[in-house]
Here is the input.
Amino acid sequence: MSFRKAVNHLKRVDPKLAAIIDTVGPCRFTTLAEGTHFEALARAIVFQQLSGKAAATIHGRFAALFPKNTPVAHRLLDITEETFRSVGVSRQKSSYLRDLATRVHQGELPVDTLHELSDEALLAALIGVKGIGRWTAQMFLMFRLGRLDVLPDLDLGIQKGIQRAYRMRALPTPKRVLQVGAKWAPYRTIASWYLWRSLETP
Here is the structure.
């Protein structure tokens, strides 16, 4: 996918972001499209507050509890607390996973058609699930669905990227992040990608 139109827009509206874009180079933003939306949400819960390697190990064990390593709501509801603990899923996370599975199983969360909802409707639907906050929902919008106008205002990396680009003395608040990023619309996801990458450059 070409992001030339997005990059041109961002460079035109924000000279500071233009400098970052020139340093980082071509946009290589990608999404994780494999599997189901339910799998992606369950994975997001399992991965919370864990380092990548530990999270991947626990998620692998969790997925192995299902036929073909594919988590589905009705089967998740049959898993005992002991089994969750045996694969490394904490009591708190197992309660989040059960809440997600219950809402999906009862038809409260239309998991198979989430991609048809608007950004705001989707955020509202996902934040209703225990253990899925605004940040996790925004990551789903960006990296699962490829929505191009999401600005994760609570993300520390985004705050640091803006602080560095704009030479602010303190980290910007979430409100300030949204104010600064307003001009990046409708490509705030791509701006965010560049801000994250900017932290990797000296």
Q: What stands out?
A: The two ends are 28 Å apart (CA to CA). The chain has a mean pLDDT of 95. Residues 37-144 form a domain with the Endonuclease III; domain 1 fold (CATH 1.10.340.30).
